[in-house]
Amino acid sequence: MTSPTKRLIRNDIPGGEKFQKTKAGQASTLYVGPNISMSGEIHQCQHLVVEGTVEAELHGSTKLEVLESGTFRGNIVVTDALIDGHFDGELTVTGRLTIGRSGVIAGKVFYNSMHVEPGASIEGSVSKMPDIPTQHSEPEQNNEQHPAAAVAEQHAMQYSEMMEPFIEDEDEGTPTAYHRKAV
User: Fold this and answer.
1) Is residue 126 domain-resident?
2) Is 137's pLDDT higher than 60?
3) E strands of 5-118, at which residues?
4) 50 assigned to some structural domain
5) pLDDT by residue (tens digit) across 148-176?
6) Global pTM?
7) Of 54, 58, 75, 156, which alpha carbon lies 20 to 30 A from 83's?
8) Which residues are within 8 A (CB) of 70 and not within 5 positions of it... i.e. 6 or more apart?
9) Strand pairing class (166-169; 177-180)
C-alpha cells in the first residue's frame, strides 16, 4: 500500500507556500480577512492587513494596510500606511501615508509624506510632522514641539511603560521573546 501524495491546492491559505513559518529577521504579518472582527492590543506585528474589522491599539508595527472592505478603529504609530477602507482614530505615519480612492479617515492624522487619490475622504484634523533635522541642520531656536512629535513621544512612553515589567530574551537566530520579570 502506498501512502497518499500530499497535494497543494491553494498557496494563499495557512499551510500554503505564502504562509510558511517566518524566520528570524523576517516581517511578521497579521491578516484579518473579510467578515472577521477582532479587538484588543496587537504587539510585534510588523505588517497588518485588514479586510475585516479591527478595534485595537497597534504597537511596534511598520506597515498598515486597510483594504477596501476593511475597517480599523484605534490609535497607531506606523512607518507606512495604505488606507483604502475605513480608519477611525488617531493615525501617525512617520513614512508615507497613501489614502486610496475608496479610503475614508475620521479622526486625527499626523503624517510625514502623504498621497491622496481622487475620491478619498478625510474627516478630522490633518497635520504634517516636522522634518527630521539632518546632522548639518542648524538647531531650532523655537522650543515648541509639533503636535505630531508630542503624540509620537507619548505613544513611545506608553509603550515603554507597558513593556517595563518584562525582560527581553534575545537568542541568536530566534525572534525576540518577552518574559515577565520576577518580583
Assistant:
1) yes
2) no
3) 29-32, 37-43, 47-50, 53-59, 63-66, 71-78, 80-83, 86-99, 104-116
4) yes
5) 666 666 656 665 565 555 555 555 554 44
6) 0.60
7) 156
8) 32, 50, 51, 52, 53, 54, 84, 85, 86
9) antiparallel
Give residue 110's domain range. Answer: 28-130
20 found inside a domain: no
Q: Give the residue carrying C-alpha cell 501615508.
A: 97
pLDDT given at position 51: 96
The position carrying cell 500606511 is 81
Q: Is the pLDDT of residue 81 over 90?
A: yes
**Tally of domains within the chain:** 1
CA distances to 18, 54, 69, 127 from 84, in Å: 23, 14, 8, 20
Query: Is residue 179 included in any domain, yes or no?
Result: no
Task: Give the Cα separation of 91 and 78 in Å (integer).
Answer: 8
- C-alpha to C-alpha distance for 71 and 52, rounded to whole angstroms: 6
What 3-state DSSP class applies to 79? Answer: coil
Three-state secondary-structure class, residue 134 = coil
